[in-house]
């Protein structure tokens, strides 16, 4: 599935720098491509959509983190099979700002989810996930723990 089929929009991130009240960071992923392909990837063996606990969200850098134009790939994977559900290109600065907002939100909220992911297919909501973990890897595939969002008590 082509990465250019996806568009990503982020909300509730700027409050961290502006000193406003905490708001749950949200990412909306819009898909404009062959509907059947994404629906198939989002589905479990019984034909229903995967639950939040059956997916993982990660960011894999393609450039060194200290590069001012560093970019990478945001991915959602099926935790059971390891298959990619979707991938899209994004700037490292934008992803790290999102993770920072989710980390700060988690410190200030009594909410189990630190961020929300909405996947839409041609403008219609397909799935909504409340997530706590967002892993960041360097270009060599090494986990960058200090940049990742990992809830306390979770062993990787």
What does this structure look like?
The protein is α/β, with parallel strands linked by helices. Helices cover 19% and strands 34% of the residues. It has a 4-stranded mixed sheet with strand order 1-2-6-7. The mean pLDDT is 93.
Structure, briefly:
The protein has 156 residues and is of the alpha/beta class.
Keywords, please?
3 helices; globular; four-stranded mixed sheet; single chain; alpha/beta; 156 residues; 19% helix; 8 strands
The total of helices stands at 3
Element pattern in H and E: EHEHEEEHEEE
Number of strands: 8
Mean pLDDT: 93
- Classify the secondary structure makeup into a structural class: alpha/beta
Biggest sheet features: 4 strands, mixed
Report how far the terminal alpha carbons are from each other.
Answer: 28 Å
Strand proportion, as a percent range, falls in 25-35%
What proportion of the residues is helical, as a percent range? 10-25%
Strand order, largest beta sheet: 1-2-6-7
Inertia-based shape: globular
Rg calc: 15 Å
| Low-pLDDT windows of residues | none
